[in-house]
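I can't quite decide. Please look over this sequence plus structure tokens:

:::
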Amino acid sequence: MVKFRVKYLFSAAVILLFAQLVLGSSAPRGTLAAAARDSARQQEPAPAYTLPEAKAEVPEAAAQTRRERRGQARAAREEARRRAEFEALPQEERDSLFSAQVDSLIALKSDSLAGQQADTIARDTIKQPRKPGAFLDDPITGKNKDSLVYDVRNKMVYIYNEGDITYQNSNLKADYMQINMDTKMIYAYGKPDSLEGKPIVTKPEFTEGDASYQMDTITYNLESKKAKIKGVATQQGDGWLVGGSVKKMPDNTVNIEHGKYTTCDETDHPHFYLAMTKAKVIPGKKVVTGPAYLVMEDVPIYFLGIPEGFFPINMGPKSGLLMPSYGEEYSKGFFLRDLGYYFTLGDYADLAVRGGIYTLGSWEASAASRYIKRYKYSGSFNMQYSNIKTGEKGEPDYIKQSNFRIQWTHSQDPKANPGSTFSASVNFATSGYSKYSATNLNDILSTQTNSSIAYSKNWAGTPFSLSANMSISQNSQNKSLSVTLPTLVFNVSRFYPFKRKEKTGKDRWYEKISMQYTGKMTNSVTTTEDKIFSKETFDNMKNGIEHSIPVSASFNLFNYINISPSANYNEKWYFKKVDFEWNPMTNKVDTLPTQYGFYRLYNYNFSVSASTTVYGMYDFTKKRKDRKIQAIRHTLTPSFGFSYAPDFGDPKYGYYKTRQTDSTGRFTTYSPYSVNAYGVPSSGRAMSLNFALSQNLEMKVLSKRDTSGVKKLKLIDELRISGSYNFLADSMKLSTIPISFRTTIFQNFGINLSATLDPYRMTPDGKRYNKLFFPGRIISTGWSFGYTFKSRDDRSQTAINDITSIPPEYANPYYDPYNTMDPVLRRQYMSQMYYDFSLPWNFGFSYNINYSISPGNYPPKGYKKNVLQTVQFNGSLTITPKTGITFQGGYDIKSNKLTTSSISISRDLHCWQMSFSWIPFGFHRSWSFNIGVKAASLSDLKYDKSQSMYDNMY
């Protein structure tokens, strides 16, 4: 019996031990309390961690013995006793039970699992298939500033204070998070805090791929990747989506109920928004809304509502509709213009097509394209066409005309094709365009436009180069055109034909002889717009080929004088000539028919020049070393030259002929080849002496800022005088005397002065005669200077109010690459243009004076004076932290009038910008007011009011 009892007692002890191993040991209450005390929260940031996967469930056996059932019952009673003791603990101790020993407890729990060991080590970088029953495909990694609590029994994880967890491509940051490892749900919200003494509530931030969200609360399913969000704010393009109740789908699309769309970054309380009853967001593509209405400063504007809406939020250029503008002009009526479509032509080009109509019959169309390929080329092409009708037919002010303008710019990257370049700058328009169709002030005031297309090629390792150029110069006042189609130049750079291949000793004198060659071909004509394609224009074209071969050398005489002899040979090939003949029947000179053929003309001349440099210096330190002015140096560079050219007017050359000019029998000399491009060799022998004197003046002064202790200052940069004397001239052998002066008074401020003196006297009827007088008569002079004053030198970002900005789109406030400006200059100060309100002020001015004389019957002097003085100015002033003024204009001193001037006021309204521009006087008097949203996605949300400059023309 004793044996029987011992046997059963031993069996019970084995069962209890087995149950203890299977179900796990429990710590006494004292141990639990000690663990709770040791797990006090630390303020230092905790290291990153990896949450383990939940243990897979172990299926129960199909059948159990009676002894096993009794053992399990005893274990269940013990588990209930331990749970009651745990529930009796305070809440704070229960929440922080495993905060300090979570890793060791998890490890202990995992090691005690029989046959079902949980892997507590982070997975390998190679993703493995999820095992049946595992928690997730990948581990959740993260960090937090306060503590992490892992409730093993309830399979819950609690994260406190600046938690940051990452799972696959998703990241969540919040001050409180709880993770349910059974349902795979994450719940997060913020906490009260303060910023600069102001109470705030932190918000969770959720990122998945490129999408980012900020919200009040979020519930996120790790497996399905769906989320329910309250109070979300996410940026889409240049706008913000704010939703009261939001559901995020696995493909990142977002369904919003009672949402807002705004471009104001103050998402908690935006200045304006589009209130949406419901919406769907496809990130990076578009927002589709149901019924919506505008709310401004919390005031709903229901009559500006829409039944449904569509907002593109994609980044980068996309094809789409271009919204029109509307208004009224006195001369053209009501208008709807700038309606069009924008095309993206691949990755390297785009196209914008626009059109407009007016109720009184005018219409317009335009096309603008840009293209660029990195490291290859870039450019733009713009074309505008307008059909203008103003006034009533039959009335004096009736105008009906068609105008167009073509603009093309192209530039080639220097690395694209070394040794070869191609560029274009075309600006061609009809003469009426600037008056009736131009849309910005610069085009209206411009009377001269120039276009050119150029190509050049040089061959590396050789002296050869080739260039080609086509150009058009246009004057809109007299409708004249000067066309050059084309000009070709082939050049052989300087070479030394007598230089030895293997040099030994000093250069011999003949080795210093050099040669060059330049061959030119051109075809040009000057005509008017209405005759550009007429036969008369082609007959009047000037063309020809010219060859030039200069030969020169340079020698040094007495180590101080440079001697340079030279000889030049020029030859011209022409293909037509025109003769004239006196007609006694009509008493007029008749122009004979043009004779075509090959005609060769040549000329040559010889010259020799000498130059040297003379220095003079006065040292002020001979008596005292501490003088402020240390020394003054004066530099003189005189040069003299002698040239000779034979008389190519000699009849043996055949370059000149005589003809009768009137019935009195007077004759004059003319050249039948003067109708060609490169002129005719001069008639009469020429033997002249050329002279020039250039000088500058420098001063050396003491300077504490310079490391050497002294600083050099230039008092006169250059003072130059030159002229020539022709020994073989019949009279008035001395030429006019050009004089130039240049100095820099201080940094970025200089004065340039030029003048031309005539040394001979003039009769009261304006004719010069052979009598010298000193110092001569000023026949022309020009003087200009300017300076820019600025409150700071920092130009980290270009702005419309920074007059020192380099890019033309900012230096020119009327810049408009797509010609979307309307005639009232509304966009000359576009609201989207950056205005730097941190720039206090800047101001620039320039002064120009030009003087000339016009010979004629103006007794007693024989000429009249022409003086033109103008002052140009521009600048800006920031009068409040958010209000600035820009201005530009000029003053004509002679007429005592202001030239065309403009004033603009800009006001920053945070997410809006307001501007007012005014041209107060003149032919282009006008004003415009604009208030609109800054962001491009809502650029059509604006209000315009203006008076057109064209209303002042009629």
Summary: DSSP finds nine helices and 54 strands in the chain. The first strand starts at residue 49 and ends at 50. The chain has a mean pLDDT of 79.
